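So, can you check these tokens?
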Amino acid sequence: MLQADARARLLIAGQAPGRKVHASGIPFDDASGERLRDWLGLDRDAFYDAARVAIVPMGFCYPGKGASGDLPPRPECAATWHPRLLPQLREVRLTLAIGRYAQAWHLPEAGATLTEAVAAWRAHWPRIVALPHPSPRNRAWLKRHPWFERELLPALRERIAEVLAQGR
């Protein structure tokens, strides 16, 4: 569920793998990954090119099922490994903080809610962007916030293309 190479220019900081991804061992190898790749304007080859895209979740294993979805990422993963791993990713030019757990780590001042953090995307531009989780469960959030797809995603796709082109 980890994909990291010192040459990566884009860092995707997610939450933790779901049951299906944990079983496959491939990050975002599910419906959430399909939506995320669409949001980013990346095909599978570009997305899984570790020399271009690092994927470092807050938790490295499936945390189990809770009452309303998966449990939170295990906190010892990020506390133990992020301080050792993230400094090795020296070429990262853009970090995507996906979901509240990643936002709390990468953007602790971003806002009290996911919506506040995502809506303030220009405040941390062009280095860090907060995104909702691309889970199909978040259809209602996307419908209530049309500005996300209308304003943020086109700018994000352009920024990703720029960042990844710099590394070639």
